[in-house]
Specification:
The protein has about 130 residues and is mainly beta. Helix content is about 10%, strand content about 50%. The protein has a single domain (about 15-134), classed as Elongation Factor Tu (Ef-tu), domain 3 (Beta Barrel), CATH 2.40.30. The chain is built from 1 helix and 9 strands, in the order E-E-E-E-E-E-H-E-E-E. The strands form 2 sheets. Strands 2-1-7-8-9-6-3 form a 7-stranded antiparallel β-sheet. Strands 4-5 form a two-stranded antiparallel ribbon.
Length: about 130
């Protein structure tokens, strides 16, 4: 039986303008998608709807991290959210698995304060343009 090529995400880094955001524990995305436009007509085969691809969207990157209220890198996320600033971002996977590069704005930022667990912050980056995997 072949050996799996799967790996774990440990060591993956999220960086804004080349500066790593501290203590990220989970990353998701980019969640790319394409609009689908219906083009059905009176002669569509077998009465089934037909579609064509419309414009594509870079989607979102979601993250969760240990919340460190006075950390400079997490403070930059709050500032970017307040100002609507677009920045360059990278997700660097461990080893030589690759790097996602994209431009995005912070579209959501939510700290959580559980009574019996670590404080966390979750957020969403809205990608503008095409994310590139290299």
């Amino acid at each position: 039986m072949p050996t799996s090529l799967a790996g774990i995400g440990y060591g993956t880094l999220l960086a804004r303008a080349g500066v790593t955001v501290l203590e990220i524990i989970k990353l998701g995305g980019p969640g790319m998608k394409a609009d689908m436009k219906e083009v059905s007509n009176m002669l569509s085969p077998s009465g089934y709807k037909e579609f064509v691809a419309g414009l594509r969207e870079g989607g979102d990157v979601t993250f969760e991290g240990n919340y460190i209220p006075h950390d400079a890198t997490q403070g930059t996320l709050r500032t970017d959210f307040e100002t609507g600033l677009m920045s360059s971002w990278t997700i660097t996977m461990p080893g030589a698995l690759g790097t996602w590069t994209f431009n995005a704005m912070v579209s959501a930022l939510t700290p959580a304060y559980p009574v019996d667990d670590r404080m966390t912050v979750t957020g969403t980056l809205k990608i503008t343009g095409k994310p590139v995997l290299s």
